[in-house]
Structure formats: structure tokens, C-alpha cells
Amino acid sequence: MDSEHTVGSGISKVHSMAVSGFTKNSAESYNLGRPYYTDQTIDEIIKRSQLIGLESTANISYDVLELGAGTGKFTQKLYPRLKQLNKEGNKPLKYLATDPSEGFLSTLQETCPDVETAAASANCLKVPDHSVRLVAAAQSFHWFATEEVLQEIHRILVPDGML
């Protein structure tokens, strides 16, 4: 059952299994069972997102907001590639990785220290309206696949943004 928990700066519904089971102590065994992402997968995301080459916009908070980032397996593949491509275009990459588990985010920061992180659930994102270019969720959407979350994603995406 879902239950309410304080996450980040708001109250959100987080599955009780996620609250009790996804901690810093469980991150190592969690990582052992999670797949790695192929270069082909990342290539396709970059190709489809057309993130590189978009004009810089003052009201953009993040180029990428990753939901359910967990320990960062997907982040470890996507972030460096986008960072390099953005560097070639002479613009910094604004990337936010979110997860309800502060313990998992701590593990993510060990492997991706340049990535901004926030303990948050997908239904309660503390970013301005229409301020994110791409929302990504790698093997996590089933934890928060609700109409409420889709409305929240729609709220934060820029017009023509990508999910």
C-alpha cells in the first residue's frame, strides 16, 4: 500500500516497499540486480530528445530531470554523454536526478558527483511550471505510473518537451 511520507520539501505518496527497502545499506545489493544501459539505448535517447541544439532559454530550470534515478545506473550513462555534447555546444548541462530514497541518491552522487540530486517523488516536484526540457525515467515508471504524476510531468515540461 502507498503511504504518505515527507520527501524533500513536500508530502508525497511513496510505496511502503520503497520507503523501507531502498536505503543506503541496500544500494549495493540493489545495484547487483539492476541492468546496465547500452550505448545504443543512450544514443537513441539523445537522438530522439534533440536536446542538443535547442536555444538556451532563461526560464529553463533543467535540461533533464530524471525521475526514480535510484543509485544512478542510467544517470552514469546518460549524464556524461549529454554533458560532452552540451560542452561542444558551449552550454552547461542542467541535470537533476530525483528519487524518494536519500540513501540511493547518496550512492548516485558517489559515481556522478557533478549531478544535482533531490529527494523527491514524481508527484511532488519542486520546480517551476514549464521549466524542464526532458523528463526521463529508466525502469522506474511502474512505481509512480498515475494520472497525478503525468499531470505533474506535463506541468514542468516546456512546450514540446520530451518524456
Automatic annotation (TrEMBL):
InterPro entries: Diverse_substrate_MTase (IPR051052), Methyltransf_25 (IPR041698), SAM-dependent_MTases_sf (IPR029063). The keyword Transferase applies. GO terms for biological process: methylation. Residues 64-161 form the Methyltransferase domain. Keywords: Methyltransferase, Transferase. Coiled coil: none annotated. GO terms for molecular function: methyltransferase activity. The keyword 4Fe-4S does not apply. Pfam families: Methyltransf_25. This is Methyltransferase domain-containing protein. It comes from Octopus bimaculoides (California two-spotted octopus). The lineage of its organism: Eukaryota, Metazoa, Spiralia, Lophotrochozoa, Mollusca.
